[in-house]
Write a structure and sequence with these properties.
With about 140 residues, this protein is α+β, with helices and mostly antiparallel strands. The chain is about 25% helix and about 35% strand. The chain has a 6-stranded antiparallel β-sheet, covered by helices on one side. The termini are close together.
Length: about 140
């Protein structure tokens, strides 16, 4: 039986064509936390043959969205900042781990760390703030 966070994920993914295009796979979906996986494809590369910064940001944004919305309230990003430590290449498998670090009535802060299989140190770091609306996700209970 799916928990609320998984139901929200399914509901969001149904129309999240960007996340679908990224080819992200859910590894863990739970309240306030999510882990996603994505393989870097040719069409995601920039002119230097490395993962386009916007693609890395999009992966982090998707992880943040699923973690922050997992409580059932629609929570759009209002501020996000990303640091790029290393560059991913075609065929690399990235893992985005999002964790809510501060949860309030109207705002929440989320950290996302993106690692690459076969490497010890993280490639990308993202911190975002979401606005927690009073609107609930329309999911089957």
């Amino acid at each position: 039986m799916k928990n609320k966070a998984q139901k929200v994920y399914d509901s969001m993914m149904e129309n999240d064509f960007c996340s679908q295009w990224l080819g992200i796979k859910p590894i863990l979906i739970e309240e306030g936390h999510c882990i996603l996986e994505m393989e870097v494809r040719k069409e995601m590369l920039n002119g230097f043959g490395t993962l386009h910064g916007g693609m890395a940001y999009s992966l982090a944004d998707s992880a943040l969205a699923f973690a922050s919305n997992s409580y059932g309230l629609i929570s759009p990003l209002i501020n996000g900042n990303m640091s790029y430590s290393k560059s991913a290449k075609i065929g690399d498998v990235l893992t985005a781990k999002a964790q809510v670090i501060s949860l309030g009535n109207k705002k929440a802060d989320i950290d996302v760390v993106i690692t690459c299989k076969g490497h010890e140190t993280p490639f990308y770091f993202f911190r975002g703030t979401v606005y927690r609306t009073s609107k609930e996700h329309l999911i089957e209970v």
